[in-house]
């Protein structure tokens, strides 16, 4: 359980922050950049949720909770196998990735195949979901960059990859199951 009695601590005033294991690092470290971008993604999903209804609200809320799990995963470096943890760190698990895949397949079943790329837009919800998709891709890039210098849970990277696909398909669903998608017309303005 998280208890936040005091919001400011002044411990970050020198440009450092504490990871989940208590180790202090620069606020611009690759790990902080990765989980900070996940936090930004969560905030953009909160905006998208304002335009959603029904099952989409529930799905976005579930994903937002998963993103807090992902942030917790990324803020706690993988520990040395011999180190004793006070508690088992929270990690994204394959079942969370599998759930996204099932939801993508379900949403995609009612959509017509694409014949062109889609321009972000259409309904307000679709536009917000496309913005979320681009932030998810950035979070994925930042997390992959982190994985080149430190250990990262493989399921965390997979989750972000699947989530961007989920957001793309959900954007199409939000555009009247693709009927209101705005298609790219190559060279249309030459």
From TrEMBL:
Keywords: ATP-binding, Cobalamin biosynthesis, Nucleotide-binding, Transferase. NCBIfam families: PduO_Nterm. Residues 7-174 form the Cobalamin adenosyltransferase-like domain. It catalyses: 2 cob(II)alamin + reduced [electron-transfer flavoprotein] + 2 ATP = 2 adenosylcob(III)alamin + 2 triphosphate + oxidized [electron-transfer flavoprotein] + 3 H(+); 2 cob(II)yrinate a,c diamide + reduced [electron-transfer flavoprotein] + 2 ATP = 2 adenosylcob(III)yrinate a,c-diamide + 2 triphosphate + oxidized [electron-transfer flavoprotein] + 3 H(+). Its EC number is 2.5.1.17. It holds the Pfam family Cob_adeno_trans. This is Corrinoid adenosyltransferase. GO terms for molecular function: corrinoid adenosyltransferase activity. Signal peptide: none annotated. InterPro entries: CblAdoTrfase-like, CblAdoTrfase-like_sf, PduO-typ. SUPFAM superfamilies: Cobalamin adenosyltransferase-like (SSF89028). Belongs to the Cob(I)alamin adenosyltransferase family. Pathway: Cofactor biosynthesis; adenosylcobalamin biosynthesis; adenosylcobalamin from cob(II)yrinate a,c-diamide: step 2/7. It comes from Roseinatronobacter alkalisoli. It comes from the Bacteria.
């Amino acid at each position: 359980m998280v208890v936040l009695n005091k919001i400011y601590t002044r411990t970050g005033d020198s440009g450092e922050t504490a990871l989940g294991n208590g180790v202090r690092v620069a606020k611009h470290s690759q790990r902080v950049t990765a989980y900070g971008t996940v936090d930004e993604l969560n905030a953009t999903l909160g905006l998208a949720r304002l335009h959603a209804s029904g099952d989409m609200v529930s799905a976005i809320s579930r994903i937002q909770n998963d993103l807090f799990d992902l942030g917790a995963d990324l803020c706690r470096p993988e520990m040395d196998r011999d180190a004793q943890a006070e508690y088992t760190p929270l990690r994204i698990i394959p079942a969370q990735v599998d759930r996204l895949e099932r939801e993508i397949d379900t949403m995609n079943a009612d959509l017509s195949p694409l014949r062109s790329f889609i321009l972000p837009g259409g309904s307000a919800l679709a536009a917000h979901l496309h913005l979320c998709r681009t932030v998810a891709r950035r979070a994925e890039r930042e997390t992959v960059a982190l994985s080149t210098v430190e250990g990262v849970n493989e399921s965390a990277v997979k989750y972000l990859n699947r989530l961007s696909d989920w957001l793309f398909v959900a954007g199409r669903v939000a555009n009247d199951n693709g009927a209101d998608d705005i298609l790219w017309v190559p060279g249309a303005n030459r």
